[in-house]
């Protein structure tokens, strides 16, 4: 296992703005799934969390599988749904909903303790002027450039980064198309 922490293991990345859940094995993307996320009044909390419990067939609005997350201040999880028409929308009370057949595929590949990063993840093409991104633990500028489909040199220039290796969690960077925000 490398010094990056999650490089060798399974981890999940949820992009709420794009309503996608990405399943990674190390640095390799295994699969991307469409999801439903929290509505504006009850948004899905962003941050770094872990799967803390799993349940088969919780039923009702939770569908066929539940994976609870250690998000403070509530009972949040990644789960199936009895409302498949909600997938792709911001309609939940903060949970991440998946089609039942997708959560059934993912469930056995995720263990208790699996890291889950939840980010806004707005695509640059969908970014409004003034769009920024908050660096998360484990991010590299190269990953951010790939995620937002932006040339690395553009991010470096736009943010006047003397050393692209020296970014830190909580740092706010400006994305292209939002130069007026500088």
Automatic annotation (TrEMBL):
Source species, domain of life: Bacteria
Pfam family for this entry, one: YkuD
InterPro entries, alphabetized: LD-transpeptidase (IPR050979), LD_TPept_cat_dom (IPR005490), LysM (IPR018392), LysM_dom_sf (IPR036779), Transpep_catalytic_dom (IPR038063)
Domain LysM: 131-175
The keyword Ribosomal protein belongs to this UniProt entry's keyword annotation: no
Active site: 79, 95
Signal peptide: none
Domain L,D-TPase catalytic: 10-119
Keywords: Cell shape, Cell wall biogenesis/degradation, Glycosyltransferase, Hydrolase, Peptidoglycan synthesis, Transferase
Protein's pathway: Cell wall biogenesis; peptidoglycan biosynthesis
Entries under PANTHER family matching the protein: L,D-TRANSPEPTIDASE (PTHR30582), L,D-TRANSPEPTIDASE ERFK_SRFK-RELATED (PTHR30582:SF24)
Family under the similarity heading: Belongs to the YkuD family.
Full protein name: LysM peptidoglycan-binding domain-containing protein
Protein's organism: Desulfofundulus luciae
